[in-house]
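PT: before anyone asks, these are the final sequences, not the draft ones from last week. 461 residues across everything. Please model them as a single complex and drop the result in this thread when it's through.
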Amino acid sequence: MTNATGAPTGTAPGRVRMVGSGPLARRLAEGLRAEGADVVDEGAPGDGLDAVVFAPWDPAEVTPVPLAELDDEGFGRAWQDTMDAAIATCVSARDDFAGRGGRIVLTTPSTAFAGGSHYGHWAAAAEGVHVLAKSVARQWGPEGIAVNVLALGPDGVLADPEVAGPVSIATPAAPHADPGPVLALLCSPAAANLAGQTLTVDGGLWM
Amino acid sequence: MTGRLDGRVAIVTGAGQGVGEGIARRLAGAGASVVIAARRAETGEPVAEAIRADGGDAVCIVTDVTERAPIEACVAATVERFGGLDVMVHNAFAGGTASRLEETPPEVWFQMSRTSAWGSFWCAQAAYPHLKASDQGRIVLITSPSGVEGSANIPLYSPAKAAQRALAKSLAREWGPDGITANCIAPVAETPALASAFSQVATLRGAIEARTPLGRIGDPVADIGGVVAFLAGPDAGYVSGQTIVCDGGSFLGL
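LR: through. Structure below.
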């Protein structure tokens, strides 16, 4: 489907690669399938790929450590490994889009914006991913690649959200929010009208 | 020399030139004892000498912020010489070269990541026990407007700088109970790096000045150093987890 200018349009998510194997990635993949997406894993060929979702966050790994006690391995696993994987995900997505354009969605916990006590290493990684999306959106937008961010609340992403501290001191606005339909939109051709945007689906905490 | 930072001890990384030098000069001018933590003595020593010539108290400690050990050694030497540490300013940065993301050499990303994110982690961690012992422990990380809005020209510069903001917010939460504040500033200033860019792109200075409501590029001492002196001083004791953009009003995205 195309619009009056010949650009692809519509809100069908199409063929989507999910990068990540933890419970968050599985939950997001289920949500995408419910919206009609053909979700494939990292090992699948890139033929006909429409979108790539980066969702590496796994509560089993995203654990709190007092910064004063954090060793280099722990900081590296959070900051360096996450960023290296995010960069590689973007570059391989661009290769697989092969000049046809496409959508990249980087997910991040709202800890990126709010910070988190004992979560400095993961907050750094989360905000790094958040702003990487803006850079890549600016650089690859002219190629027809739309890069945006799906931000999620800390529940189901951080091992211990209570330790991190409140994302907001305000009242949640939408406690039953479902990221699936929003992610599907960000994967769809309609998202070509967005660039470097962050849609936060966290129950209406972070605004 | 007397000032509102009398008796305070500060480390400024990357203080051999540019923004770091401006911060160091201003902190010293306000009465702080300042460690010029520079990668090379050739740049750091003259800054320390100039501060001393103006009646201030400064020493140069050669420090490579891409490794943990030199940072820990710098902090240890600072505490041994001055008896404590109150203010840790991490400004040093390297690697900001324009490139396509898909063509960015790994070593360029390594430099940016190490000097910005890793360097902030190591500086904060090494300083922590001394900042906790201080009655006004302060961490100031030097980020950039690009760390908020992304960059098409240097795509990995932005996430490297963004990490510092999230780290500062996290430390504001975590070390607030210890009386420590953690903040960022995002400066645009006359620096050797900017001068080099101006020499390569003749229209760049005019373009930056034209987009800046205040119509000029910041002075490292007066415009940037002054804000760090505020954050390091007694008037900013209730400010934490914030980013102050010091760019003449250009970037209004916070």
